[in-house]
Write a structure and sequence with these properties.
single chain; mainly alpha; Leucine-rich Repeat Variant; 2 domains; 69% helix; elongated
Length: 287
């Protein structure tokens, strides 16, 4: 296991780590939500006493145990309990920012995502991990968890956009997916995706941006000029998915018809066929 910070803890093989972690997971109390009636208990969700005790025990282990495996197992257990473990969010956030071992931080980030909405500390802690953590797996997990907690604040949207621009492509792809997932306003997502398609150096990011604009469909009409320009991209996959996106946007992208007509003569047969298909989609939608 690679440790990115100074540790005094004895290392162990990854296979042993995960075997012990899986064993610890068995100690989690599984609760059937259908067995409890929220209506009979008021507005607050009922959490059985044994689950509350399990949560407290795991928080104590998470904060005080010297063993890496025990701390990671406690974080994983809290995540498996889910939203009922909301009270553990501050402890998980603290561990995410301070624990010396990346595997513990990964489990803490994952747990915050599984616990979901309701804890203000979650979004802030995950955002800090996305930008500052030294371990790429911790950063990737934090990005995904931001999507789960549905933190769509302006600060988070700007953070994800900055990750797409300035971090490595692998993180950028994760950020693009989460950006589209959490942003309630398609125009904001379209803006950032258009910027990525136009300016990202890595073609994988440009391809992902084009694909997601196509998934948004007619609501991505503001991206039409950028998609039309992307039909001249040096990467054939970018041209292909830009042509496809224009077809999915449909008649809202009619201003790109001339660019698609030109793309119908592209050196790549896939791009030519897709450009022709998108032109037909536009013509069909005009009726």
């Amino acid at each position: 296991m690679k440790v990115t910070r100074n540790l005094k803890t004895v290392e162990m093989p990854l296979c042993v780590f995960f075997l012990v972690l899986a064993a610890l997971e068995l100690s989690v109390v599984q609760v059937d939500p259908a067995g409890f009636s929220g209506d009979a208990l008021g507005d607050e969700a009922y959490v059985p006493e044994e689950v509350q005790a399990d949560i407290r025990d795991n928080i104590d282990t998470l904060l005080n145990e010297k063993s890496i495996v025990m701390r990671a197992g406690a974080a994983k257990s809290l995540g498996n309990i889910g939203p009922d473990a909301l009270e553990s969010a501050p402890a998980l956030a603290d561990v995410l920012s301070k624990d010396t071992h990346p595997m513990v931080r990964v489990q803490a980030a994952r747990a915050l995502g599984k616990i979901g909405q309701g804890a203000e500390v979650s979004g802030l802690a995950l955002s800090k991990a996305v930008w500052y953590d030294e371990d790429v797996e911790v950063r990737k997990t934090a990005i995904r968890s931001l999507g789960q907690v549905k933190d769509n604040s302006k600060a988070t949207l700007k953070l994800l956009a900055a990750v797409i621009k300035f971090k490595d492509p692998e993180l950028g792809l994760e950020a693009i997916k989460v950006l589209v997932k959490i942003d309630p306003n398609p125009k904001t997502a379209v803006y950032y995706l258009s910027d990525t398609l136009l300016n990202a150096e890595n073609p994988l990011l440009r391809v992902a941006a084009a694909q997601l604009l196509g998934q948004i469909g007619p609501n991505a009409r503001d991206a039409t000029p950028v998609l039309a320009k992307a039909l001249e991209d040096e990467d054939s996959d970018v041209r292909l998915y830009s042509a496809e996106a224009l077809g999915k946007i449909g008649r809202e992208a009619l201003t790109a018809a001339s660019a698609l007509s030109k793309a119908a003569r592209d050196p790549d047969i896939r791009v030519r066929n897709m450009a022709k298909k998108s032109l037909m989609e536009m013509a069909r939608n005009r009726r």
